Amino acid sequence: MEFVMLRPLCLEYPITHFLFAVSPSNLQGHSTSQSDSPPLFVQSLLRDQGKLQGGGKKVAGLGMLHHQQSAKQQKRKLRDEVEKAVNTVQRCRHPPRKTAREKIHYARQEKSQRAQILLLTRAQMELWRQCASWLIHCRVLPENHRVTWEGAQVCDLAQALRDGVLLCQLLNNLLPHAVNLREINLRPQMSQFLCLKNIRTFLGACQEKFRLKKSELFEAFDLFDVRDFAKVLSTLSLLSQSPVALQSGAQPFPLGSYSADDDIYNGLSDQIDDTVEEDDDLYDCVEDEEAEGDEIYEDLMRTEEPPETRTGVDKRECCLKEIQQTEEKYSETLQSILQHFMKPLVRFLQPQDMENVFINIKDLADIHRNLLEQIQTSIIQFGAKTLHQVFLNNKERLLLYGRYCSQVEAATKLIDLLSCTREDIRMKLEECSKRANSGRFSLRDLLMVPLQRVLKYPLLLQELMKHTTDPTDKENLHTALDAMRDLAQCVNEVKRDNEIIRQITSFQLSIENMSESLALYGRPKIDGELKICSSEKKSKHDRYAFLFDKAMFVCKKKSGELFELKETVDLQYYQIRDESLGERDKKWSHLFILLDCYGRGGYDLFFKTRELKKKWLEQFEMAISNMCPENATANNHDFQMHCFEEASSCKACSMLLRGIFFQGYQCTRCKMAAHKECLGRVPACGRSSDHSGTMRKPKPRASAAPSTGFPKMEAFQDYLGLPPPPVGFGLALPLSRGDVVELTKAEANMQWWEGRNLTSGQIGWFPNSKVQPYRSSPTPDLSAFNWFAGNMDRGEAKSLLTSRSDGTFLVRQKDGGEFAISIMFNMDTRHIKITSSDGLFRINDKKAFKGLTELIEYFQHNSLKECFKDMDTTLRWGYKQAEQIAPYSPANNAPGGNSRNMGAARARYDYSARDRTELNLREGDTIKILSKKGHSGWWKGEVYGRIGLFPSNYVDEDYSDYS
After folding, report:
1. Measured between alpha carbons, how far is 349 from 444 in angstroms, rounded to an integer?
2. 256 CB neighbour count, 10 Å cutoff
3. What is the model's pTM?
4. What is the pLDDT of residues 153-171, one digit of tens each?
5. Which of 370, 397, 483, 568 is most buried, with most CB under 10 Å away?
């Protein structure tokens, strides 16, 4: 038997160490390949040996080969080494018939050769690629992240690290609990403040836990603004070589030689897109307390499964058994908390601490004891025919979970604090845990279980409904399922709002002279640097702004994370006007204006890039829409954003108002509650008033096209200019059959008339025998067209088109029945009014069309520049139509070109987005589901080309339009 071994290279770390750095999936993937050709990464290595930087370029770490050899000889030698290893791999892949022991030898040899191939490949990587490889090995980046794709660039790695989340998780992977993930924001949504806070937390832990010197660390802005990414890589390289990191078994970098070309790290700040949202898969590696709580729940609720050998098992009976058994076990868990923890700790904790730790768990235990009795009665006595009514009757009682879920995080923090500061409490908690469950679960663990239980009811009922055949029972269960989904969504929003409250608290503590609570101003929309000048002070000032639903807080930056409040801009007194300067691509030249509604002045806001300006403009419009919604005064109401102290339901749809602050809208007169999307459907207000409480902006009246007083004529025969008009009349007006002519000079006894061809815009003379009176035809049903959006205002149109490619358009109908075109152009939404008179449709005075569809068809093939000099574009894609060139997103650029598709859903209710990350939904919309990760109860999807989040309980899944 012949074994060909590749000579080990003179490396600082032996090859055996590197075996642990090789991705198992890579080894398995290549070893199972049936092809005799070398793996793709080896082919690439053999093809691209120029990357070894021979010739005049410096090669770092040439000591790994022979110093006395020329660069050309080194490259040839490395190529020979790789080819030799590849040949060995091919022989090992298809060995002759051997014994089992010999097969094991072949497998080990192949694995060793593959490891050395990967080592050689990694050794000649650019430094940023070595860093990405290290991060993947440290379980921080997923193995299929786009930094591994063909054509990946260094800015892809920078974008993944900019928010600081993965860097903090990296430290925890190298050293458990190096960073308290509760102290960072896991979904900063590229908020500059939160991202910098995360990055500074990482840098602080590098000094404190990994003993890196301050001089070895990058600055926070070096990463966030990507102004010195080479320094970021240097810090991560030193971190990989720290004793703590080496103890974790991760192979450090750089390994051997690497390209020392620093030019690729220059100018990265101009390549970073501040509007890109990272893919949800990127955060899969981040620790999640919810997942930990789910594991504890599953362990506690584990039930006996029917033996696989049993045949004819009634799946519906199994579902009912699971509902009953898990309810029994959950009720026992609550009683155990009361008996083994709450009762013994009375003598150790102050009354206030007892309430803060156990919240309302006693009330929950009482509710579930009664709920269990009702479930058992329904199943045993009524064959589960009344089970749906059990859940409907208990929905209001289960709203107690809102309070519990909003306070349980503070409860677990208090337990941690008391355990650290008081030895007697720590020992008592351990004793209680041993008595309750032999020490398997602590009180902190058990307090997370109720969060999971209330979220399981929809899953249990959905499974039961799937195996129910009786139509009446199925419909009843669907009603109960809706109720439990609504409850679960409410609980999820409580948890989501708790994250927002933490963000607001961070903002509050950073603004030194902020006397009011920021939570009074709604949810945060966006924050970051801008330049501002007021009508009084014309000079620009560098400022840092925090935008909320109701106000913008303009601050001056101080040291670190501290700010000084300079002024508060109350948004209800301002309107937005978009402005574009000539120097479009110059930094800080992109602005829009806040105009005072009462003419007292305003502010000019300048942004670094056009993308940032667009992002801020969208959030301003969303904030103003939240504060002054379109239907705020519908049916004589006066709706305003409101914080409801108790759990409340919408008067229009009867679903719960979600969250713990500013959950919806309340009429200032009759106190009726409603969702934003339901404001136009609530019953009439019982108390009349003068609508003085809500600001309303007057809508300008649309002006009709000018009329000459002559009737319109339609050509029923072609006229190409022959015979010509009489001498002295003027030019002939060519006509094609169907053209509409607007007469300018005409007498009944004359054979020649003058007019304007509304199709071509030309003016001239034509024989009256070629035309007849024009009769307008009724507008056809437009719903079948992929560009018609129905009744819609500007704000909704902008929301639908944002993130779409230039040329994407829709036609909407305004309240007065008139039409308008909304189109994306130069990364902005433009609105074009369509006027109609005498059955003709126009977007300017030059051309008119017999129908709306004719107008749209014309400009689908002809540029709008004919009417608007600065709009050189056609109407390219209807907003319901798939674009031929989709905007960049990780999903669209995955290897193979296939975007992820998890099926589709149909919207059951309207939903109004609260910020730019969410989708607007209309009842009946079909949504392509892209991801179910992220915040619980929220899915990511695509509708009409826009990608965003939507509440999962607002849709029915498995709709087949996208199958």
Report:
1. 15
2. 23
3. 0.64
4. 888 899 999 999 999 999 9
5. 483
